[in-house]
Design goal:
single chain; globular; mainly alpha; 409 residues; Na+/H+ antiporter like fold
Length: 409
């Protein structure tokens, strides 16, 4: 296929994304104030609790089987590699520039965590629906593409709230209070955090306090607790550190349920198909899930307006994050995926290979804003980074998508 046709095919989804994002920003302007802070908060809650898990459940039940799940085993490893490589490049960049410690958590988080969930749910189906799409019939492409994107969403959510969350927590090194999270934060989790925590009092703590308390607990337990009690205490500590309440988000739970229904044939016969006794459940979930993509895109546009705030952030930091996310990571992604194809690790599916490469070229995850606010780590600068990187993404995603399609065909 001619390179120009591939460019047009790659451009159309990005233009659709930009139009919906612009509508979201337009609705959030003070002159109209339709998507005001309170409206964004409530829409965030609906997207987080209803639309996204319904979308993941409905797609995975129809598209994932045990055989196909075995075939996409490389995707969790691929997403993990995007986090590890991004964090390593960010760390190297910080060592060269010698930035202050309070900026390091933000930079590392933005370099490590890409938006491997929401944006793929928008871009991949749009690519499939284009008349010049190189991935075959629209229905088949859309079915497989949404399955890959939903699986990526669940995997990315787990890595975000374990890997990136703890990087920012370690490098922020500041006093924080969960109750201080602003309702206008970018990610959907923030609205949930605010609602849940508003009914309880959370003390202000520091990293030193946590370390000191852990030392005292360990010393006390080693002298006076039984082995079984020690094991239970260690398990509780591990659960608290992993923050399982956040990791097991509704989207992840929806994905797990969808995988169970898709992989277990008796369950699939109960939910999927015109003659399935519980097909109404799957149909209802599909109807709700269809609302997820436009709602998420409108929220993205509305929340990016926060990046217009003034700040003393160095321009070099923005350039460094953009270079890492849009030049270094995609190049390394091509090398990794092509290497995996060469050694027979990845099966021959151009759409699957395209999604794997695309995971390296995405802008930072919008939930990074939520995490930085949890730890008081440069919230205004985070909004500026989000605005700058998502503006640049409109150009870089088009170019990289064109190249990726050319490479996998």
């Amino acid at each position: 296929m001619q390179l120009w046709k591939l460019f047009i095919t790659a451009l159309m989804p990005v233009l659709k994304l930009l139009l919906l994002t612009a509508v979201g920003a337009f609705l959030a302007l003070h002159r109209f104030n339709i998507l005001r802070k309170s409206a964004r908060k409530h829409l965030n809650v609906i997207v987080y609790f209803v639309f996204t898990p319904a979308l993941a459940f409905s797609i995975l039940t129809k598209t994932i089987t045990f055989r196909s799940l075995i075939m996409v085993w490389f995707m969790p490893l691929n997403v993990l590699l995007t986090y590890i490589i991004g964090a390593a490049l960010g760390w190297l960049f910080l060592k060269i520039t010698k930035e202050p410690s309070d900026m390091q958590g933000l930079v590392l988080g933005c370099c490590a965590a890409g938006n491997v969930g929401n944006l793929l749910l928008i871009i991949v189906p749009a690519v499939c629906k284009e008349s010049g799409s190189p991935f075959g019939a629209v229905d088949v492409c859309n079915k497989k593409g949404m399955a890959y994107a939903s699986l990526s969403l669940a995997i990315g959510n787990i890595y975000l709230w374990t890997f990136a969350y703890n990087i920012i927590r370690i490098y922020s090194g500041k006093i924080f209070n969960v109750n201080k999270v602003d309702d206008s934060t970018v990610g959907p989790v923030s609205a949930i955090e605010t609602d849940l925590e508003s009914h309880s009092t959370v003390p202000v703590v520091t990293a030193e306090d946590i370390s000191e308390n852990n030392d005292r607990t360990t010393h006390f337990g080693s002298e006076f607790t039984l082995p079984g009690e020690k094991a239970r205490a260690s398990l509780r500590t591990l659960v608290d550190k992993l923050n399982l309440k956040v990791i097991l988000s509704p989207a992840t739970i929806g994905s797990i349920l969808g995988l169970i229904v898709g992989v277990v044939p008796p369950f699939q016969k109960m939910f999927v198909g015109d003659n399935a006794p519980l097909s109404v459940v799957e149909d209802s979930a599909s109807m709700l899930g269809d609302s997820s993509i436009p709602a998420m895109t409108l929220l993205l546009g509305a929340n990016l307006l926060n990046g217009l705030k003034r700040s003393g952030m160095k321009f070099s930091l923005l350039v460094g994050i953009i270079v890492i996310r849009y030049i270094a990571l995609p190049i390394l992604g091509v090398v990794i995926v092509k290497g995996a194809i060469h050694f027979g690790i990845i099966h021959h599916d151009p759409l699957y290979q395209f999604v794997l490469m695309l995971q390296y070229a995405l802008p930072p995850a919008t939930s990074i804003s939520t995490i930085t606010q949890l730890f008081g780590a440069r919230q205004t600068e985070c909004s500026i980074v989000m605005l700058a990187t998502y503006v640049c993404a409109s150009f870089s995603l088009t170019l990289w998508s064109t190249l990726f399609m050319w490479l996998v065909l």
